[in-house]
Amino acid sequence: MQEKLKAIVNEALEKMKSAEKLDSLNDIKVAYLGKKGELTEILKSMKEVAPEDRPKVGQMVNDARTVLEEKLEEARQGFVQKIKEEQIKRETIDVTLPARKKFMGHRHPNNIALEEVERIFVGMGYEVVEGPEIEYDYYNFEALNIPANHPAKDEQDTFYVNSNLLLRTQTSPVQVRVMEQGNLPIRMIAPGRVFRSDEVDATHSPCFNQIEGLVIDKNITFADLKGTLAEFAKQLFGEETKVKFRPHHFPFTEPSAEVDVTCFKCGGKGCRFCKGSGWIEILGCGMVHPNVLKMSGIDPDEYTGFAFGVGLERITLLKYEIDDMRLLYENDIRFLKQF
Questions:
Q1: pTM given for the model
Q2: CATH topology for 109-336?
Q3: Residues tagged in the binding site annotation
């Protein structure tokens, strides 16, 4: 038995010497020390050894196992060291080469404008609220006083998932969801992406960003709306900015208005930027329609409110004097890094 064990050990050591890679050592370990290895088979055959010789044979097998394990570990360490040396040699850095310049990221002009708008309204006590981009037809139209046969629905009745779900055409549904919660008073803005079937050109896109605001409280009047938007315009475009309200129609507000601001390029004198009028249209607004309040569970005899909405891209284009909306989405670093 002693001679047999010695032959097994010598055979294993010879194979270790000729091993050319780490995987070969693993194969040797399995062949001699594994569950079906040669030393394991000898231990399984101990029942054939005389009882008085079993301790001695067992000790010899264990000694052989110890020798093989130590030699395998030495060989493994040798391979590991060799691999490490080759890796270091392969990955050596040539310090004489010029360094690779790292370019820092930059905020998108839309994000810069959005953060400024949010800062202004949060400073006036408003909360920023977001909602789902895939919206129910009820929240996008019905709850905003736009029934199925309303003409105002034609220009927005576009991207439907099914008969009840669509890609929202405005962020007004977020206002309805907040009103339904009944936590009054409300002072909020709702920024986010909206979707309409518009042709892509210098001022239109089928996907753009909108910011809508809502205030609901007791004794809210149109004067509160005018004061709020005047302060917003001054903080966004400069202290000398003035606002002008023109009558308009929106299904979910009554009365409604379009809002113009004095041209911040010429100060209202008239220039190419404002097409000689001295004014630039910026947003739509109005007092929340009583029907909208009723459908959201708010008593219009006790509460009133106002709402407004502005396109984020429009603010960005005006603020930075960009003449083509498509530039915002072309990911041209030469354009983006100017802001």
A1: 0.67
A2: BirA Bifunctional Protein; domain 2 (3.30.930)
A3: 254
